[in-house]
Structures are given as C-alpha cells and as structure tokens.
Automatic annotation (TrEMBL):
Domain HTH cro/C1-type residue range list: 19-47
GO biological process, one term: DNA integration
InterPro entries: Cro/C1-type_HTH (IPR001387), Homeodomain-like_sf (IPR009057), Integrase_cat-core (IPR001584), IstA-like_C (IPR054353)
Occurrences of domain Integrase catalytic (ranges): 133-310
Gene3D superfamilies, sorted: Homeodomain-like
Cross-referenced PROSITE patterns: HTH_CROC1, INTEGRASE
Lineage of source species: Bacteria, Bacillati, Bacillota, Clostridia, Eubacteriales
Name used for this protein in its record: Integrase core domain protein
Length: 497
C-alpha cells in the first residue's frame, strides 16, 4: 500500500514485480530499492519478501467496535431467531428495524451502517447440509398439498393436489380436490392406501390445521378425526418441525413433478373425475420408472413395500362430513350453505347427506337417491331435471318458468320448445331430453328439415321403426328320400324289413 497525502492506496502489480525482482535477484537492500523506485521504505519492507500481495485486501485488525457489546449482539440474534420461529415471510426484521429497536430499547449510540454490516453477516446464507436417509419397505409415507391451475368445463380454476409418496420405493399417488378441507384430507389418504394396497407404519405430514389441533412437531396433537383414521388404519401420525420442508423432501419434490409432467399443458376437462383418471394413469405409469442409483424399478420396489404394509381393514373409513336433513317443499336439501334437489317423492322425508371432498351424496334408508359435484360457493341451488319431470308433466303450465328447466337446458333448446304448439308439447320434449340426453335430442332435431317441427317428428328420429326381418326365398329343409321297397314287400304279403 502506498501513502498519498495520508491515504492508503494499493500499489500496481508492476511496482510489486520490480520490488520482488530487485530484492530476490539483484540482492538490493530495502533502502536502495526505495531510492530506485521512488516508493517508501515501509512499502518495500511490506512487499519485498512476498508475505503480502497488493491484489488481496487485508482484513481489519479484528478489534470490535466498542459500541457493539455482547448485549447488543444477543439482541440482534434474538430478533433474527424470532423471525425464523414465526416463519412469516413478509413480516421479518430488517436491519433498519433492528437498528431502530436498538436505539429505542437499548439506547444504542452507534451508527446504522454498523448494524447493517452485522445483520448482513448473520443472515449470510450458507449451504445447507442434510443427512441422507434410508427407509425400510412400508415404513413410512410422506404427504403434502400443492396447487395447480386447470380448465374445468371451460372455466379456469385452481385445484388442490393431494400428494403421497412411499419412502422406500418412491411410489407416488396424487388426487385433485376443490379444497384442502378435512374431508379431502382424509379421503385422499384412504384412496391412497387403496392405491398402495396397504397402510404404512408412519405418516409424515406438516403442521397444517387440517391435521393438527394444537402444537407442532413432536408436540403436535392430531385432530380428532385424523386420530380416528390413524387408529383404524394402524399408523402413527408424525409431524415435521416448523419450516422444515426437508423432513418430507420426497413428497415436496413430487408436488412440482406433478405440475410439470402431468398438468402441462394446462388440462381442459369436463369433470374432476376426468382429471383424476388421467392423474391416476400417470401415477401407474410412473411405476415403470427406474430412479438413478437404484437397481429396480419403482413398481418392483413397491411390491416389496406392499408385503410389509399393514393390511387394509374390512370396514372402509367414512371420510365424509355427514348430516341428516329434511327435504323441503321444493324437494331440495340444504348442505354446507347450499341446496341440492332430490326426487320429488322424497319431499318432507329425512335423508342422509354425505359431503366428500369433491361430491355430495344423498341417501334414503341406505339407498342412494342423488349425487352432485360439491359446490363450495354459498347460497346456490343445484337442480336435476329428472327429479321434477313427473311433477312438471302433471303441471305443464309451469314448464317455461320452472327453475329446474331453466337451469338444466340450453337457451337453444328452450327456444325450440317455445316454437312448439304449447306447454304440453314442451313437457313431452323435456321427457325425451331426460330419456335420451341433450346431444342425441339436438342431433335428431338437426336432422329434421321441416321448419314446422313437432315432438312426433323428433320422437320418430329417436325411436326409429324396426325394419321388418328379411324373408329368404331359399328354404333349406332336409327331406328324407322314401324307401319304396318296404311298401312293395308289404303289398306282396311279405314282412317289412
């Protein structure tokens, strides 16, 4: 370093080179080198033996600034530790906030830049090192939730992916749900156990409220229904620590894999069942995959794990949210802020309603009477035309204003119905709709060339007259040739042979 007006500056590499050459090869003294090159003797002394180099910045003296006491350091560390414990990304201490608190709470007299430097060092990211883990066959399954975007019946929505991974074989299972509620959480695990054909000894999950009543990690207490599920399938609930995604790293990677490999391009499906059928197909195909470093495919290792898993109980755990409700005068049942229709013959009767993750099913005396895709909006009513058609046939004048009609047929079909001779003809058209479906009905209507369309014409296309059976002119009947010699013998008085 050279001193220029009291300020330290770095020497150039060529000066350093000349100092070293003169000292090592020409045997010049430090005084002589200083005189030849015109640099200070201190500079020559520093660089002549090669113990210092000009291109590396020398560290500070190591003296700690007098204002940074142990108490100040502990306060800074406690602020950062509390951020890590809370794990709220958008509400963490900044260096400025720590400095302000030090001034207010500790009467700190130092500068803000000093605190910034300390916080930067404490926050300096270091490469995390993890312990490689090994699992026994059927020992554990990791589970997790993720989100994805799909087009459902032409509408862009977000769905929730419930993912499971068997730790020994890395076998995968995934199912899409509308919500991350308790019904979906329990149903996902039950269908997953059925996919793996067994239950593991441990289920590893995070501390989501859907599973944990209170606490976290080893201190977590499972929700009552999750505890009941674990008892029925004989597995132990194991919850990870806060912000410890690496504790279930196998399934963490699975969520991203499903998004990238199954849901790209964005699926366009008519129903959730269609989406889940495709996801299941891809999960089965994954069993053909062989993970790098393993001698067997995922499927073969899964067979080994299956043998060690707990057998599924004979009784299938019911994951639904179940209630008993009375059918109202409009033949609908209320469930979870919405109404669903049932056949009118059940009006006034009590029925059982079971809400699953994606479906709502109604029962009367253990007989299923209606099934719907579950609606998660509020104050909605879902009608089925077939539930009301018998009543509408008795009261045909209501047909054009009936909500079950308006909410279940297209505007095009409604307009066609209005062109008919009256409400009774419209009711007959609806009966054909219920019996044959709208696609076949519209196909029959499109086939009619006459602008004056009638229900009889439509019915003729839907129910064609049977073609008479073709009569074959050639009749293949085997006739035995008569034996006349027997008759001649009888006539001559002989005996028949």
């Amino acid at each position: 370093m050279l001193l220029c007006g009291g300020e330290r500056v770095s020497i150039e590499v060529d000066i350093y080179e000349k100092i070293r050459h003169l000292y090592e090869h020409e045997g010049k003294s430090q005084r002589a080198i200083s005189k030849i090159l015109g640099v200070s003797r201190n500079t020559v002394k520093k660089y002549c033996d090669g113990s210092h180099v000009p291109w590396e910045r020398q560290g500070k003296s190591g003296r700690r600034q007098y204002v940074i006491t142990d108490e100040i350091m502990e306060f800074i560390k406690s602020c950062l530790a509390s951020d890590e414990a809370e794990n709220i990304k958008k509400q963490k201490h900044t260096a400025k906030r720590i400095y302000d608190r030090l001034v207010d709470e500790k009467a700190f007299k130092g500068g803000e830049s000093t605190i910034r430097e300390i916080v930067a060092k404490l926050k300096e990211k270091q490469k995390k090192v993890f312990i490689p883990l090994s699992y026994e066959p059927g020992e554990a399954i990791q589970i997790d939730w993720g989100e994805a975007t799909i087009y459902l019946a032409g509408k862009k929505i977000k769905v929730n992916l419930f993912c499971m991974r068997e730790c020994y074989s890395a076998d995968i299972y995934c199912r899409a749900f509308y919500r991350q509620n308790e019904e979906s959480f329990l149903e996902g695990q039950i269908t997953g156990f059925e996919y793996f054909d067994g239950a593991p000894k441990r289920m590893i999950f995070d501390n989501a409220k859907v599973a944990v009543k209170e606490g976290f990690g080893v201190h977590a207490k499972a929700q009552d229904r999750y505890k009941a599920l674990s008892a029925h399938y004989a597995f132990k609930c194991e919850f990870t620590n806060i912000a410890a995604g690496h504790e279930k790293g196998l399934v963490e990677g699975l969520v991203g894999w499903v998004r990238r490999n199954i849901l790209v391009p964005i699926p366009r499906v008519a129903t959730m069942d269609e989406l889940n059928a495709e996801i299941l197909r891809r999960c089965l195909k994954y069993r053909e995959h062989q993970i790098k470093g393993r001698e067997q495919t995922v499927g073969k290792m899964a067979l080994t794990a299956r043998v060690r898993m707990t057998q599924l109980p004979r009784y299938r755990f019911d994951p639904s949210k179940s209630i008993t409700a009375r059918v109202d005068d409009f033949s609908t049942v209320r469930f979870d802020y919405n109404h669903y229709s049932v056949p009118v013959k059940y009006a006034g009767k009590e029925v059982s309603v079971k809400g699953y993750g994606n479906e709502v099913v109604m029962f009367h005396r253990n007989t299923e009477i209606a099934r719907y895709q579950r609606c998660y909006q509020r104050r909605q009513t879902k009608y089925r035309l077939e539930h009301y058609i018998d009543l509408i046939e008795k009261r045909p004048r209501s047909v054009f204003n009936a909500k079950p009609v308006k909410s279940n047929i297209s505007a095009e079909l409604l307009e066609i119905g209005k062109r008919l001779s009256g409400p009774r003809e419209m009711v007959k058209l609806l009966r054909l709709l219920v019996d044959y479906g709208e696609d076949k009905l519209m196909s029959a209507i499109d086939s009619i060339q006459n602008p004056e369309i009638s229900v009889e014409q439509i019915r003729a296309y839907l129910i064609p007259v049977n073609t008479p059976a073709k009569i074959h002119s050639r009749i293949d009947i085997k006739v035995t040739k008569p034996q006349l010699n027997k008759y001649d013998n009888l006539m001559s008085g002989g005996a028949a042979v």
